[in-house]
Design a protein that fits this description.
By secondary structure, the protein is an alpha+beta fold. It is 33% helix and 20% strand. The strands form ten sheets. Strands 13, 14, 16, 17, 18, 19, 20, 21, 22 and 24 form a ten-stranded mixed beta sheet that branches. A seven-stranded mixed beta sheet has the order 28-36-35-34-31-29-30, with helices on both faces.
Amino acid sequence: MSLPSQSFDFFAHGELPAPALSLPEAAEVLASLGVAGQLTELGSQQDQNFLITGAGGPFGVLKLANPAFPERDTLAQDAAADLVANGFPELRVAAVLRREGVAVRAVAQTSLGPLVARVLNYLPGGTYVDQPWLSPAVAAQMGRIAAQVSAALAGFEHPGLERRLQWDLRSSAEVVELLAPAIGDPAEREAVLAAARAAWAVVAELAEQLPVQAGHFDLTDDNLVRGAGGLPDGVIDFGDVSRSWRVAELAVTLSGLLHHSGPLVETVLAAVRGFHGLRPLSSAEVDALWPLVVLRGAVLVASGRQQAELDADNAYAQEALEREWRIFATATSRPAAVMTGIIRHALGMASAPGAVSGGALLAESPSRLDLGVAAASTNDGAWLEPGLADRLAAELGGVVAASWGGARLSESRPLSAQAPATVATSVTLWTDAPIVVRAPWPGTVTVLGDRLVLSGAAFDLVLVGDGSSEQLTGTVPPSSSQEPSLRAAHGNRPRAQLGSALATFDGRAEVQLVIHGLEVPLLVPADEAPGWLALTADPAALLGLASTAPAQDPAALLAERTAHVAEVQEHYYADPPQIERGWRAQLVDTGARAYLDMVNNVTSVGHAHPRITAAVASQLARLNTNSRFHYAALPRFAEALAETLPDGLDQVFLVNSGSEATDLAIRLAMAATGRRDIVALAEAYHGWTYASDAVSTSVADNPNALATRPDWVHTVEAPNSYRGRLRDGDSLGYGPAAARRIRELADAGHAPAGFIAESISGNAGGIVLPKGYLGEVYAAVREAGGLAIADEVQVGYGRLGDWFWGFEQQEVVPDIVAVAKSMGNGHPLGAVITTKAVAEAYRAGGYFFSSTGGSPVSATVGLTVLDIIRDEGLQTNARQIGARLKAGLTALSQRHDSVGTVHGHGLYLGLELVSDRAARTPDAALTRDLCERLRQLGVIMQPTGDHGNVLKIKPPLVVTADEVDFFVAMVDRALGELR
């Protein structure tokens, strides 16, 4: 039996409420389809849906179509779903369930009349609509899926596609006008109408250039299903299948991203690039895209308010109202032209920068002031100084200009969860005496407050004073002798002639060229800059200056790295910021965004420490050569290093890295004992050279680590008291177990040359060894005639606060110590310290030599770092700030079930994240997303551990209380968004 064909006219009816069949009657319909299962009602705005659960769990959805739509519409939906499923097998698709090749569907007779009933495949995983934050990777995959669906339906034809839906963006302007009365708040109603009218004016000009085809047109966060890896791989709800502009598919997907937290531009561009990579957008489609997003938001608000009136008991529709308003508000938070410019730039489709010509603004050209990220004037933390730009301009004297279009480090704001506005859309001028600005072309002058606008060309010339009443004065008609302040001249519209005096200023003013009729902020965030700058032009030519060279695109630089640097040399993040400056615990990218560095134990005494800069420059100016020459820096550094260690450990070998140090430590043990077997901990990382890699067993660093160890490496289980075999109090058994293993090896003819372990398991997540562990194991290895090697590459040098060396926490003294990272503060420097007997034993196999290990510069750096740690009390800082940080992180467990435990000590901590706290189940996906979100919030952090579920927290030792409090607050915020 079929339904009668109906003509649904949204202009007359709006969207009708979904059918409301009772649960028992719905069960009867399901039985009539030959399907058995328990039903649970699901929310819906248009159709009525029930989840079907069988013995093995959910397997299908019973969908009862809205009777307002003809049966051919549901046939079109099912055909479209099959096309997508067949075209892209990697996607899971909620197509009609088939039994022996026959679709499970029929027209059922119900108390509400005949309804099209069908069973769709159930896709487990859940959607993203209730997740506060979406990662860029999720957004990118949503864009790709939209492109895949668009490609699959490109040639699809069906009678059911010819529908008059209010969701068809081709009718969006009419829909908004028709439904706007349902928006009760007058201000909101006017905002929606104004935005829709402005957006439609743009789209209408482009409509004939926009291809039309079949599409899903509802591929939002509510209809894309999460896959096993956290990325979307499933498509549901083909209820809006119809014909519309091809680009509308992407516009709808973008709209679904806008109510989530996270940077708007990054999220949007991820999805746009995902779509464009498979379905390249035309120039017209790019220009129409954001206006269509605005129109989609306007339709959502208007339709949602109307639906809430029509179906007041529909909780699903009521709950969507706030979300729909957030979508609209975000879509209109930047001018559509700005978002279009951003998208064009990202896709390599940006137009050439605007150019201007005209008369000179000033009698003489100003000198240029560099406020960029790389400017020497911002060194030594000067960029944090309030009023830096004004001070530097005053020091230069005369007329000074800071360029248009560049990021100004003086505008950066550390410890900010949002990227600050740092990119100038104007040239800033300073003068230490009154100076006249002249009209570069004839035109009309408008004065408002401390702003003067000269029209008459493609770009308006905008002069902005600093707000003081007499600082910027302007002319009224040239025939007048009056020169009142701009504030006094409010409302005047005189006519200026070429070369006539426009204004006089003394101090600071902004010069901006803006497309006629627009208003552009003087400073904008770096990610939005391509869009805003496209609305302006560089005033340099009018000032007699060379135009500003465009900043290098970080993405282009990353492409160069990919082309010429071996891929195996990985970088942090899939889309990393380009870091070009550091200061103490802060890193700064090319957009002048400051990030708190919470992962960088290499720079122990802080980035760009002035004492190290001065010491290196001084030494380089005198001498830097290989370490066989006799010079003062090497013995002085070796002596200072030995003084930090227990008596007897006084023979120093200087190398260039931690890997080299570990490699040499192993070779020393082998030479001293005449053996080759080494015992190492599981889940450990020691380096990349042959020997250091051989004893590295972390599968996070090498997935094949355990299967590829050479036969001379023997592992003992990781003494992980949180998730290992022996947990909590039982972890004291790890030491005796390892000692037994060493004795067994000796009895089997494999007495070890040495045992190597980090004093705290660093790459495992900063896990503190059980009390007495090293004492037990060191005794066993020495009993067998071997040596104890302490890998202090990551945990040594005061990082633990209470101890300078990690092994001190275990109350043991090793035979060999390997160290690097912190000792050079980013300079390549490592060392092995051992006893005289062990060092002399190495001579039997030859000599040791490292050309630049302990070079004059390296030794100078090493000595300076030790001095700074002592003089600035950084070990004490590690103890005090580390305790504060650990307490703050531990407190997060009271608010977030995902916080399993906090490992570590001092400023070497690990926050372990779990999906089940009782079972201590590692949650690598959450940890990965948390690190990505922290980057967006201004914190650099990375995961570690064999399960990838621990935050590796090891900031520079100079980190402050305010900085660790900010870090804890951002982790707290991000975990709340990642529920």
